[in-house]
Amino acid sequence: MGIERQLRDSLRRSAGSLGEPSLRWEAVETRPQSAARSWVRVSIAVVVAFSIAIASFVILRDAFSRGPSPATVAPTPRPTDTSVHVPFENLRNGHLYQAGGQAQPLVGELSGGLMGWVSPVGVDSPDGTKVAYNAWTAVAATGSANSIAGTPSIRVIDTTTSSDTLFEEGAFSLAWRRDGIIAYFRGRTKTYTGVSPYQGDIVVRAPGGAETTWSAQSDRYIVAAWAGKTLLAYRELEGGHELLAFDGPGQERSLGTNSTLITVSPDGTMALVFDGGAYPPTVRLVDIASGKDLGSADLLSVGVDGVDSIQFLGYGGDWVGEYAVAESDVGLVRLHIVGVHVSVSDVMAFKRSAFPIQPHEPHFLPGSDSKVYAWAPMDSGNVRTYRYLICNFATTSCDVGEVDTNDTMFAEVHNPSRPLSGHG
Q1: Are 195 and 143 in contact (CB under 8 A)?
Q2: Can you give the pLDDT at residue 39?
Q3: Which residues contact 68 (CB under 8 A, 6 or more apart)?
Q4: Degrees to nearest 5, angle at CA 235 with 116 and 175
Q5: What contacts 232, CB < 8 A, 6 or more positions away?
Q6: Mean pLDDT, the chain, as a whole number?
């Protein structure tokens, strides 16, 4: 996987502004792929400028498609409908933006380069009052002229007091359990030089400050999520990674080489794992306590009209009831889990011209197993912008909002640990 090398390409924060950037919303309608070929089109764009509270409408066609477009039927514009409001916390422009749009400045420089795409940059506390985020302080590079040196750190924002405090220097990636216990990676040295592997340990800290080292030996770890009282993490390998389960200090089990955690079940007893090291590509339903596979699905024959195969399912998914959602190489995928049987239920595929990079980190909206939100980077030359999506698998439609941002880094805030009480 070469996660440390990704630091060279990690997105960096530029100067921020206090105002909430304006969002342009586009209503997108699709036809279901589970029963017929995928049809996706944009029929109306809704411009919402929050700074001046003025909405206007433009028509945009054929932004999303798999196959010829159906006859155009414009959905009703919804410029003030809550369904098109950004429903999740995010980090950008040097600020934490809450779901309601309130902005709080960050003290640290946002960064997730050392983690790659297997652990969230920002994690909210189970009670929803705090947000922990990964930060970076650059230092003068030594050794190779191409090396990147700096000190990673974890910082915590208290949204009730607006404080932004240092949790620990020389640390990155964390998982926040519902009882307040935080697991994270602590480097053997505070500074990452870019010359040698950044080794360290997995540390578990109680709310009162008591610490325990859970890793038996120092290595290159990335913390992912809690599944009940079992901690899921990665060991970085040369050319790959290994998914690990820690049941306590020194109690380490392997859940598979080149296996990626998609999401943990709501009760924390199971996990969906993408097995990238297998052929055919497979999604596995894993029992956390035993590490055994309960079921699996072959992704080369998904049985969804219009999509022949899925090559990968990514980190940052979600699971509600009998359904889970994940990012993939073709778009958003909804999985159906009944007992120990897992299958691909629906695929919301997007044309590459609309999304050169497929949407990331899809999550269900509260109270729904069909409505999801996600985000996607949009590259245009040397300029990077971002779009938000709110999609409904039941109606096969999406609302898409483009954020105007002066930042080159965007991070969704979410807590992948399960179970959680209330928030997250």
Answers
A1: yes
A2: 31
A3: 39
A4: 65
A5: 175, 224, 225, 226, 243, 244, 245, 246, 255, 261, 264, 271
A6: 79
Q: Could you count the other beta carbons within 10 Å of the beta carbon of residue 82?
A: 8
Residue 137 in tokens: 């302080």
Question: Residues for the chain: how many in total?
Answer: 424
Mean pLDDT, range 159-170, rounded to an integer: 96
User: What would the 3-class secondary structure string for the chain be?
Assistant: CCCHHHHHHCCCCCCCCCCCCCEEEEEEEEECCCCCCCEEEEEEEEEEECCCCEEEEECCCCCCCCCCCCCCCCCCCCCCCHHHCCCCCEEECCEEECCCCCEEECCCCECCHHHCCCCCCEEECCCCCEEEEEEEEECCCCCCCCCCCEEEEEEEEECCCCEEEEEEECEEEEEECCCCCEEEEEECCCCECCCCCCCEEEEEECCCCCEEECCCCCECEEEEEEECCEEEEEEEECCEEEEEEEEECCEEEEEEECEEEEEECCCCCEEEEEECCCCCCEEEEEECCCCCEEEEEECCCCCECCECCCCCECCCCEEECCEEEEEECCEEEEEEEECCEEEEEEEEECCCCCCCCCCEEEEECCCCCCEEEEEEEEEECCEEEEEEEEEECCCCEEEEEEECCCCCCEEEECCCCECCCCCC
Q: Which of 19, 16, 62 is nearest to 39 (CA)?
A: 62
What distance in Å separates the CA atoms of residue 102 and residue 244, rounded to the nearest whole number? 37
Q: Cα–Cα distance between 318 and 88 in angstroms, integer?
A: 14
Among 4-8, 245-249, 414-418, the minimum mean pLDDT is found in 4-8
Task: Over range 324-352, report the average pLDDT.
Answer: 94
Residue type, 379: D
Q: Residue 330 carries which side chain, given as an amino acid letter? A: V
Whether 328 contacts 312, CB under 8 Å? yes
CA–CA distances in Å: residue 39 to residues 89, 177, 208, 369:
31, 41, 54, 22
Separation CA 366–CA 378 (nearest Å): 27
C-alpha span between 48 and 28 (Å, rounded): 16
The amino acid present at 290, given as its one-letter code, is S
* pLDDT tens digits along 269-284: 999 999 987 889 999 9
